[in-house]
Design a protein that fits this description.
alpha/beta, Rossmann fold, 7-stranded parallel β-sheet, 40% helix, globular
Length: 326
C-alpha cells in the first residue's frame, strides 16, 4: 500500500511509520512540526524513517488543501491514517477555536481532498475522551457519547461523525479507533507519565490531581500500532473500535509503580482535579478483538521500563528508538 500518515512525526505516528516500512509499505508522512512541544523532538522521532528509501516526509498543514491534493495525487496514495490533531484536554479549554479548526476543519479538508481523488480508505484516530464521565464501565463503542467534557473530546467526536458522513455519501471504508492513554518511548513531554518520570528521577515535586483515585486505561504504544496495522488490513465499511489495555490503573498506583521502577520515592503535592478531566477510563476491547484480532501484550510495568530506559538515558531525546525493542 501507499499510505499517508498525517501527524507522522509525532509520538504514535513515527512508531507507526517505522512499522509500516518494516512491513514493506510505502509511507508518506505529513507534519507541520507544531511548536506545542519542541519540533526538534519530532525530527528525532523520524531518524530511522528518514534513511528509508520508501519513506517521504512532507512539511505542511492538513488544512492546506492544495498541498494535500498534490501529495495524495503525486504519491498515488491509496490509504490514509489520520493522526494529525491538536492534542491535550486541558489546553483545549483555553483555545477551543484552535482545536476545532485543526481537528475538525482539518479533517473535513482531508476528507474532501480524498473524495476528489478517489482515495476512500481511512483509519481515523479518535480518543477515549469522547466517552466523558460515562457511568458505563468498561466503555463500549455503542455507548452514548453526547456529553464530551472538553473541546478536545468534542472535536474528536465530531471527527467520527464526519467520517461516518463520508462513508454514507461516498462509500468510504473507515475505521475510527478510540485510543486509551497511550504511553511509551517518544511520549509527548506534557503527558503525565513523561512528567512523573522526569520529576521523580530529579526528585522534584510531583503534582497529583485529586486524591489519587482517578484511573486511566494506559496502553503501550506498540499495542496501539499493532491495532492500527490490523485495522489497515481489515478496512471495510464503517466501524468504531476501542484500542485500550482493558486494565485501569489508579493514579496513586501509577506513581507507586514509577517509584518502584526508578528506585526513588516521589515527593507529592495534591491539587484539585482540573476542569475537563474525567474520573476514569476503561476500554471494552472485545469488539476490537473480534474484528481485528486485537490483544494488548505489554503490561504497565514492562511498558514503563521501556519508557524510563528511553527517557532517562543521557540525551535520551536525541536517541532514536530501536523498533525491535517494542
Amino acid at each position: 500500500m501507499n499510505i499517508l500518515v498525517t501527524g507522522g512525526a509525532g509520538f504514535i505516528g513515527s512508531h507507526l511509520a517505522e512499522r509500516l516500512l518494516q512491513e514493506g509499505h510505502r509511507v508518506v508522512a505529513i507534519d507541520n512540526f507544531d511548536a506545542y512541544y519542541d519540533p526538534a523532538q519530532k525530527w528525532l522521532n523520524l531518524t530511522l524513517c528518514l534513511h528509508h528509501s520508501a519513506f517521504r516526509l512532507v512539511e505542511g498543514d492538513i488544512r492546506d488543501e492544495a498541498l494535500l491534493y498534490s501529495v495524495l495525487g503525486q504519491e498515488r496514495i491509496d490509504t490514509v491514517v489520520h493522526l494529525a490533531a491538536k492534542a491535550g484536554v486541558r489546553p483545549s479549554l483555553h483555545y477551543p477555536e484552535q482545536y476545532m479548526d485543526v481537528n475538525l476543519t482539518g479533517t473535513a479538508i482531508l476528507l474532501k481532498t480524498m473524495q476528489s481523488l478517489g482515495v476512500r480508505r481511512l483509519v481515523f484516530a479518535s480518543s477515549s475522551s469522547v466517552y466523558g464521565n460515562s457511568s458505563q464501565s468498561p466503555f463500549r463503542e455503542d455507548a452514548m457519547v453526547d456529553a464530551p467534557q472538553s473541546p478536545y473530546a468534542a472535536s474528536k467526536r465530531a471527527g467520527e461523525l464526519l467520517c461516518r458522513t463520508y462513508h454514507q455519501l461516498y462509500d468510504f471504508a473507515v475505521t475510527c479507533l478510540r485510543f486509551f492513554t497511550v504511553y511509551g518511548p517518544r511520549q509527548r513531554p506534557e503527558m503525565a507519565i513523561h512528567q512523573f518520570i522526569e520529576q521523580i528521577t530529579n526528585q522534584r515535586m510531583v503534582t497529583m490531581y485529586g486524591n489519587g483515585y482517578t484511573a486511566r486505561d494506559y496502553t503501550y504504544v506498540a499495542d496501539i500500532v499493532e491495532g492500527i496495522g490490523a485495522a489497515l488490513r481489515r478496512l471495510n465499511g464503517f466501524q468504531i473500535l476501542n484500542l485500550g489495555n482493558a486494565t485501569p490503573v489508579l493514579l496513586s498506583e501509577l506513581i507507586t509503580t514509577i517509584e518502584t521502577s526508578l528506585g526513588v520515592s516521589a515527593r507529592i503535592r495534591t491539587q484539585p482535579i482540573p476542569p475537563g478531566d474525567v474520573m476514569a477510563t476503561c476500554a471494552d476491547i472485545s469488539l476490537a478483538g473480534q474484528r481485528l484480532g486485537y490483544q494488548p501484550r505489554v503490561s504497565l510495568i514492562e511498558g514503563l521500563q521501556q519508557q524510563i530506559q528511553w527517557q532517562n538515558q543521557p540525551t535520551a531525546s536525541l536517541r532514536p528508538v530501536n523498533p525491535s525493542a517494542l
